[in-house]
Design a protein that fits this description.
The strands form 3 sheets. The protein has a 5-stranded mixed beta barrel with strand order 5-7-8-10-9. Strands 1-2 form a two-stranded antiparallel sheet. Strands 3-11 form a two-stranded antiparallel ribbon. Helices cover about 25% and strands about 25% of the residues. The chain is an alpha+beta fold. It is elongated. Helix 1 packs antiparallel against helix 4.
Amino acid sequence: MSAPNHIIRCITRLPFTSRYGSSILRIATFPWYKRKSFGIQRFAHNPAEGADFTSIVDNSPDLVKSGRRHGPGIIILALIPITAFALGTWQVFRLGWKTELIAKFEDRLIKPPLPLPPHVDPEAIKEFDYRKVYTTGRLCHEQEMLIGPRIHDGNDGFLVVTPLKRGDGGSTVLLNRGWIPRSKKAQADREDGLPQGLVTVEGLLREPWQKNVFTPDNRPEMGQFYFPDVKQMAELTGSAAVWIEETMSPDLLKAYDREAKGIPIGRPAEVNLRNNHTQYIFTWYALSAATTIMLWMVVRKPPSEVARRIRQNKSW
């Protein structure tokens, strides 16, 4: 067996299963010079020889797109420009309404002041809002109310509201005398600002305001007022629900002198309604245009990557 060129036949029983399920003998021939590396060789199972095997060539997979091109977010993106356009259009109508309202009030300001009737119907004040009036009476300083805090030229202070008791059977009205600094809150520190006897005041007849949700409620039992609640103040002082704002000509030196003495600084006779609707129109329409362009880009541009998956027909 050691002779050269002698062929050794090694018969080995291999764990190989044929297509017919029976074990067979396999003969391997090796030259004598390869006997050192000879060993039992086992063959791996080949799935291709199974009876249930199907080639990928005979049964090709289906390529299916997974996911939708646009999700629910496209609906939200489409609602944004529509809503912004509607709000911009609404601000156009608001601009027209506010412009006409300011023009009506300014027309009333140029008219000469009217004497305030002895009795004023609170329901009719709306038709005379921003109308100049004058009246004579005595200031009831013992019933004075301070509304604040209020800012004037960067300084903290209060609005002085004093009932004005009129003679000859006239009703008592509420007079907003103007602003004083916080340092002059106590009446003892502003004796010059407490006129005695009969006084004649000129001011604007104003309609009561509506309190917003951010303003705290007044606490009259503690003498704290944050908002001019005309009806509440009138009931507290026994006055009519009539609100007059005392006016004065804008004069910087006079205002400084009044502030130092604690004399209330009255408001100028002008309309102080804010009219920012033009800015709102530009903002909403610009937002509508920008989001419309974004929507167009999203709809027009296809997805950058189309996810795909292979759906197998059979298990391989």
